[in-house]
Design brief:
Blueprint (H helix, E strand, L loop, with lengths): L1 E6 L7 E6 L6 E5 L9 H12 L3 E5 L4 H10 L6 H17 L8 E6 L1 H12 L4 E7 L17 E6 L3 H13 L4 E6 L11 H17 L2
Parallel strand pairs: 3-4, 3-5, 5-6, 6-7, 7-8
Antiparallel strand pairs: 1-2, 2-4
Length: 214
């Protein structure tokens, strides 16, 4: 395992944490949302599990530190899907240039509003993104981009997260790519229940492994 801390966005931008296991088969770029970031314990736990699957992972903040400080008061940027998508594309381009990941297929793992950014970015560059997984996401916020997504997409939702579950079911109907939805029984929005996050990691790892090898 090789781990790096990098400045993904360039000088004055947002840092990222890159982990590359020996013999990695793909790199999974995480897209956080709703005020979360690369230090999210949930996404760190999923990333660690994906590393065990032989997948490289990049955890990065999609907002700069001044933006995060402003966001804490106004909460205006977490739903700016266009901005989050642009930042995700910048991080994707960094991974394509870096020697440790440039040869690896690219996948996205999106959470909350970050899932919409992941899907929008995948729709913009269909030749680049191999697969997408959403955890408790808001794919509905990708709007018209959903029909243009070509990467196989898995939506993971907790059975007790009823509002988001309904939004994901509607988004699933709009996707025209290979897609599926996995409902984790007894889980709420943050998947804090015993074993829930482990199930998310298992589902995501299986989905990525299946589609990076096809």
């Amino acid at each position: 395992m090789k781990s790096f801390e990098v400045d993904v966005m360039g000088q004055g931008g947002a840092p990222g944490d890159l982990a590359v296991p020996d013999g990695a088969t793909a790199v999974v770029l995480f897209a956080h949302g709703s005020g979360s970031g690369r230090h999210s314990p949930r996404n760190q736990a999923v990333a660690a599990a994906l590393n065990q699957h032989g997948l490289a992972t990049m955890l990065t903040d999609l907002l700069t530190e001044p933006e995060e400080q402003a966001e804490a008061h106004t909460r205006h940027l977490r739903f700016d899907i266009d901005l989050l998508t642009e930042r995700l594309q910048t991080a994707s381009a960094w991974l394509e240039r870096d020697p440790s990941t440039s040869h690896l297929p690219l996948c996205y793992f999106g959470a909350s509003t970050g899932a919409a950014a992941a899907l929008a970015a995948a729709a913009t560059t269909p030749e680049r993104v191999r697969a997408v997984v959403s955890r408790g996401g808001r794919p509905d916020l990708a709007h018209a981009a959903l029909a243009s997504v070509r990467a196989p997409t898995l939506l993971i939702v907790g059975s007790l997260d009823t509002t988001v579950l309904a939004l994901n079911r509607a988004a699933l109907d709009e996707l025209q790519c290979e897609r599926d939805m996995a409902v984790v029984e007894g889980a709420t929005h943050l998947f804090e229940e015993p074993g829930a996050l482990d199930e998310v990691a298992r589902l995501a790892g299986d989905w990525f492994e299946r589609h990076v090898r096809t």
